Task: inverse folding
C-alpha cells in the first residue's frame, strides 16, 4: 500500500513522466474493455434510486496489475476494411495530403519490419491488400491526433462516410489480418503496438485513448471467460 501511495505522489509522478508540475497524478489506468466498468456503473446508476447504498450492484470487482510485468502483453488491434470500392492509396493521399508517404513493400513480413523501424514521433501503419499489394504508410509532420491508431481511425471513419468501404472490423493478430485482407474487396491496416511506457504519460497529457487502441494479450488468450450471474435488484 505504501508503494502504491508513493506512485501517486504528484511531484514524483510529474517528474517520472516529464510532465508539468501540478499535473494531477494518475495511479491507475482503467482498462474498460470486455469486462466493462462503464456498464457496471450504468447498471448501478439505474438501480441506486430504488436500491439501498449497500446493494451489491454498487460494487465492481477489479484486479490491480503492474503493466510492466512480462506476463502483461500489449498487442495492436488492426483495422479490416470490408466492401472496399475506393483506391486506397488515392484515398490516403486525399485524406492526409502531402504529409503522407506510401512505400511499397514486397510482402507482409517486410511491411512489419519497416513499420517497426519507424520512429514513434511519426504516425505509421501497414496497408495490406489482395494479390500482395502491401505498403508502408507514413504520415509526416505534427500529427493532429496523439496516437497512430487515432490518425488512421480518422481515415477509416472518413472512408466509411464517403462510401469507400462498407464496414470496418477490429482484428487481433497479425496473421489473421494478412489472411482476411487477402480476400477480394477487403483491405487491412496493420497498426503499431503501443509501448507500455507510453500509456500513463499519454493519458495524463491527452485524456482517454481512442477506442480499440490496443489489446492486453492476443486473440487466442481471450477465448475463455468466467460465467457470472446477473445481480438483480
Result:
Amino acid at each position: 500500500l505504501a508503494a502504491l501511495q508513493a506512485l501517486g505522489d504528484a511531484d514524483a509522478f510529474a517528474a517520472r513522466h516529464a510532465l508539468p508540475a501540478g499535473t494531477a497524478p494518475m495511479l491507475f489506468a482503467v482498462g474498460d474493455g470486455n469486462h466493462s466498468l462503464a456498464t457496471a456503473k450504468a447498471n448501478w446508476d439505474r438501480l441506486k434510486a430504488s436500491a439501498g447504498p449497500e446493494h451489491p450492484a454498487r460494487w465492481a470487482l477489479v484486479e490491480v496489475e503492474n503493466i510492466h510485468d512480462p506476463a502483461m502483453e500489449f498487442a495492436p488491434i488492426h483495422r479490416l476494411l470490408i466492401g472496399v470500392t475506393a483506391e486506397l492509396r488515392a484515398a490516403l493521399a486525399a485524406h492526409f495530403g502531402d504529409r503522407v508517404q506510401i512505400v511499397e513493400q514486397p510482402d507482409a513480413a517486410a511491411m512489419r519490419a519497416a513499420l517497426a523501424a519507424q520512429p514513434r514521433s511519426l504516425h505509421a501503419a501497414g496497408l495490406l491488400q489482395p494479390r500482395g499489394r502491401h505498403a508502408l504508410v507514413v504520415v509526416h509532420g505534427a500529427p493532429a491526433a496523439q496516437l497512430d491508431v487515432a490518425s488512421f481511425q480518422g481515415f477509416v471513419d472518413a472512408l466509411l462516410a464517403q462510401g469507400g468501404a462498407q464496414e470496418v472490423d477490429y482484428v487481433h493478430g497479425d496473421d489473421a489480418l494478412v489472411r482476411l485482407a487477402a480476400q477480394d474487396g477487403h483491405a487491412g491496416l496493420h497498426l503499431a503496438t503501443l509501448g507500455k511506457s507510453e500509456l500513463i504519460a499519454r493519458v495524463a497529457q491527452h485524456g482517454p485513448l481512442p477506442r480499440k487502441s490496443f489489446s492486453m494479450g492476443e486473440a487466442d488468450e481471450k477465448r475463455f471467460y468466467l460465467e457470472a450471474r446477473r445481480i438483480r435488484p
